[in-house]
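Chapter summary example.
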Amino acid sequence: MGAGSTPAAPGLVLIPRQGGPRLLGRTLLEHLGLDELPPTVTSMDALLAGAGFRRRAIHGNTWERDGRAVLAGEEFLEDGARLLWTFPVPWDEASVRRHVRYLGMASHDLRGALANVRSYAALLLNGRSPLEPKVKRGLETILRNADRSLAFSQDFFDASRADLGALACEPERQSLLPLLDAAVERQHAAAAAANVALVLDMAPHSAGPEVNVDGARIQHAVEAFIQYQLARAQAGEVIHLRVRTTPPQVRVEVRREGTPLSDEDVSAVFLREERAFREKKLEDPLRVHLARQEVEAHGGGVGVETDRAGSTLFLTLTLAAPAELGPPASMQV
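The structure predicted for these 333 residues follows.
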């Protein structure tokens, strides 16, 4: 949209627990180029596939057909009904490919230069050559800043690809527990330095729920939530990671016990530009916004809740279907 343009209205369909789908206005039909809603709509995937649309990326929420593209998804309501929604996407396939290629070139050049700086700093710090304390501290600072800049640039280019509906995801069936373990391990040092306890509230021998996800993407999203909470934690507070399974979904919570977020902060958690301009920083707003994009690329959702005892950032994913048992070994051909 250009400056001063009016945001597009969503197309909406309500699927109640009983009865047929209810079209809320004709905007969705206009987005999909349909004259009427099929009477047997059961899900957004079924509706779009039946209308001839195909996903732009595996598990993404951008669909396209003959140069027409829409963002689409569905939300579960408290009464068990589902709300299906669409938004038009002002990008044609050729433009998307051109922008993705441009982003790839920019990412290669920038990250290549940063990687060289990091490699030389690490080489000088390998202990083979004696260094004066002041020089050593300077090289350690260079190394930390290079790592931080590499992470930021990766987030920036990934978020830019996600804006185009072209975020790469490679889902596979796996347990959530190893991803959460890895996220806690990576953020443990930062939590300890802030005198904040970081606790994974799951039984040590629990297998955890299984999901079909790109593990690196979901781990990054969880770490982004942890880092958001760490930046606001006071010494002595506790951050809990919890998993709540309510089929067909699983919810991962990152809860900070302590002073709750303000209403202003709650409303802006996932708003990249608003937070960046207000906080005069881009790193964390971009990281948390990308976390939302990564979860939504898997068909999930994110949110934030507060109460008097603290604040919770959460993400939801669809549980993997139960694994089908094969025939007994003696019967396999």
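To summarize the output: The chain has three domains: 11-90, 94-163, 172-318.
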